Amino acid sequence: MRLFHSAGPHPIAATQREPLEHLCATNPYEALSLAHQLRRFDRWGKGDVVIMGTPGNPIAGAWTTGTAMPVGLTGLESSRDLYAFAKYTASRLTRRGSVMGPHDDIEILWRPLEVHGVRAREFRWNQPVLRFPEGSQWNSIRAAVRGHWAFQALHAATLGHYGMVMPASCAMFEEEVGYDPQREGGGYARHVRELLNFGRTFVVTDDGHGGMGLSRVVFKADVGSLAHDMAGLTGVWTHPEMRGLGIARAAMVAVVDAIRVSMATTVTLYVNDFNTPARRLYDSLGASQVGTMSTILL
User: Fold this and answer.
1) What is the pLDDT of residues 227-276, one digit of tens each?
2) Nearest CA-CA partner of 98 in 73, 72, 124
C-alpha cells in the first residue's frame, strides 16, 4: 500500500474533479463508470463526491449518493482510513442502491460497510470487464453478420421512441436486478429519457411478428458510460420471443460499429459471470477480459 496520511473523506466540488479523473484513468476499464459520472454533471451536491488524500492528489475517491462507485481504496494507508471511508459511504447509501466498482476495491470495502449497518440483497463478485476487438479480427466478425437483417436495422433511438424503449428497458432491468424500477418513482424513466436525448440507446425494432417494423423493440443496448475515448455498454437485452435467432450477435456488431463512428474507439462492457448465454455471445464476438468488476445490490 502507498503511504499517505489521510484525515478521512473530503468532499470535492465539480471544479476539483480533474485529479480524481486522472486517478480513474490509471484503471480505465474498471473505473469507467465513475469517470463518466464525474463528467455527467456540471455541479453536484456537497458530499456527492469525496476523496481520500488531498484534492490535488487523491489516493482514492468515490461517487457517494444513493449508489457508491469507489476507486483506489487498495491504496489507502490503513484500515482506519478504510473504516472512515466506509462510515461516510454507509450514511449516503439508499434502499435499492448499490456498491459497484473495481473488484479489489469492493472486496475490501464490504466488511467495513457491513460493520456500519449496510445490508446486501445480492452479491455479484465476479463481473468480467470485456473489450471488443478491433482491426482485422473485427472486420472478419462483421463480415459474418452484415447480411443479417438486425445488423442493417439497428439504429440510435430518439425521444420519439420512448414509448417503445421504456417497456424494453424495464423488462431488461427486472430480468437483471429483480424488480420493476417504476415502483421506485420516476428516476428510472428520467434515466431512459437522458440516454435517448443524448443518442446513447441503440435498438432493433420489428412489426410485432418478426418482420421489419416499428411496433416493438426486439433488441436494445445503451452506452452507459463514456470517458477516456472509451464506451461502456449497459442494458443489453433481446426480446424473449426473439432469442436464439442471431439477432443479438448481429446487432451487437452494429452497435460497436456505430459507437466507433461517433463516440469512442474502445468499446467495453461488464457481464455477470453466471450469465452463460451472454458470455457465449461475447466470446463469439472475440471480446477479451481486461478487468473485473463487483456489484453489491442493496
Assistant:
1) 999 999 999 999 999 999 999 999 999 999 999 999 999 999 999 999 99
2) 124
